[in-house]
Amino acid sequence: MNETLKVVGLVKEYDSFRAVDHITFAVNQGEIVGLLGPNGAGKTTTINMILGILEPTIGSIEILGKNLKEHRTEIVKQMNFAAVYAQMPGNLTVRQNLYVFGRLYQVRNLTEKIGFVLHDFDLDAFANTKAGLLSSGEMTRLNLAKALINEPSLLLLDEPTASLDPSVANLIRERMKNWVAETQTTVLWTSHNMYEIEAVCDRVLFLSHGKILLTGNPRTLPAEHGKKDLEELFIGVAREPLSFL
After folding, report:
1. Is residue 200 within 8 Å of residue 189, measured between CB atoms?
2. Nearest in space to 209 (alpha carbons), one of 11, 57, 42
3. Does 233 reside within a domain?
């Protein structure tokens, strides 16, 4: 399979603190990989390095076969992300936000594409509403609509359904799975919802203290380590990471 994302020996240090500690992994085209771990494990730092927001202390990142450091301008047009902490400009309407980001990503047939994502994420009724007036769930849907506006080859999702009620979250998960099946988009997905990870991910990576401790199929990995389910495995990794080294 083609590797969309390849991370080798990645390290991020802040003075004497090592947030990410020599991690290596790859994500294939059309694969959804869950990046799991307790708060402070290094998940968001890893995503920010892949996005090019943070520069690694050591290590390399390749996206679509090209080094991120050397080809960042070219690569970022083929990526996108959504995160609970990344808010859209509140003084712009939903449609205006999508238009601005669509222009930044140089999206062709932008008006048509905006109409598609508005409908797909149930935002038609809010098209002319300022983003600052949206509920947290509506804002999350706007973030996801923005994340797909350029039909990215690599999509990074950091807690994408955290603000959604269970019914809407389930619909979003199904839409994302269908999107990946249709487009072969590569997805790196963080979540603390283990049901969600089991439902959407082909593979998971468990991080603790900046290191990858475990990797495997989320539906079989718990039994391989004597745990009844993914949540119990997550708790074990969070509380006793050394036992998994």
Report:
1. yes
2. 42
3. no
Strands 32-36 and 186-190: parallel
Position 126 pLDDT exceeds 80: yes
Domains of the chain: total: 1
50 token code pair: 């892949």
For residue 128, being part of any structural domain is answered with: yes
- For residue 81, the model assigns a pLDDT of 94
Residue 146 has pLDDT above 70, yes or no: yes
Residue 139 contacts residue 92 (beta carbons within 8 Å): no
11: which strand partners? 58
| 23 located within any domain | no
Supply angle C-alpha 34, 36, 42, rounded to 5: 120
Following CA atoms 199, 203, 204, 210 in sequence, which dihedral angle do they give, to the nearest 10 degrees?
Answer: -150
Write the CA distances from 69 to 58, 59, 135, 184, integer angstroms.
Answer: 12, 11, 37, 25
What tokens were used for 209?
């203290």
Q: Tell whether 204 is covered by a domain.
A: no
Query: What does the alpha-carbon distance between residue 93 and residue 53 come to, in Å, rounded to a whole number?
Result: 26
What's the mean pLDDT in 207-235? 93
